[in-house]
């Protein structure tokens, strides 16, 4: 069953991929399913797909999903770290959910080099999220798009193209809530954080 990621996001991309980095959610990856094909089939056959889409929408609405990088760098600056701390709090609040990180580069340099650079950026994000208390097993294999998915179509240096995007990819299948089919409880779980925007301030209490 071929369902484009763009269709699955139900219009979350909104006006334009270039309009806001938060609106991406990996919508540019059209591999025929939500996440990888095997993961998509699991979600579809078990009835989890609509709930995964709902959670993806929540994540996109409540959390900044994208960090950007300096030219030819995979170093996370202060702003990127603040965004990832917000992501980590949200992710810890939904321990049944899995995520994937996509790394990207601008069009300066060779395709092969930019592929490696995109992977370094994705791995830097995953490593930081793990340091923030996110279980590594909930962060699926990082993926590099290299220079193939620019938000701004230019051969010049462009910070918006030098980015890593975190997105919901599905559910942790061996979690008790998933085994018991408690998808609705997960989707509608209350989440309150003063840092749901781009601020890195911590919210009160542990998640």
How would you characterize this protein structure?
By secondary structure, the chain is an alpha+beta fold. The chain has one domain (5-187): OmpA-like domain (60s Ribosomal Protein L30, Chain: A), CATH 3.30.1330.60. 35% of the residues lie in helices and 12% in strands. The chain contains seven helices and four strands; from the N terminus they run H-H-H-E-H-E-H-E-E-H-H. The chain has helices spanning 5-8, 37-45, 49-62, 78-93, 111-131, 176-179, 183-187, and strands spanning 66-68, 97-104, 143-146, 163-171. It has a four-stranded mixed β-sheet. The longest helix has 21 residues, at 111-131. The N and C termini lie far apart (37 Å).
